[in-house]
Amino acid sequence: MQRFKGPMRMLPAAGDPLRVSIHGLFALGVLYTLYLAHQVFLPITLAILVSLLLSPAVTALARRGINRAMAAFVTLSMLVALLAGTAWMTVQPMLEWAEQAPDGLTRLMVQEGGLRDALDSMTDSARQVEEAVEEIRDEQQAEEEPVTVVLESESWRGQLMVNARDTGLAVALALALSYFLLVSGNSLVLNFSAQLSTRQRRRTTLRMVRDCQREIGRYLVVITVSNGSVGVLTALMAWAVGLPSPAVWGLLAALLRFVPYLGVVATVALLVVVSAASLESPVMMLAVPAGYLLLNTVVGFFIEPWVHGYRLSVNPVVIFLAIFFWGWLWGPIGVLMAVPLMTVIQVTLRHIDSLRPLHDVIARG
Question: Which domain covers residue 56, as residue numbers?
Answer without folding.
Answer: 40-144+165-362
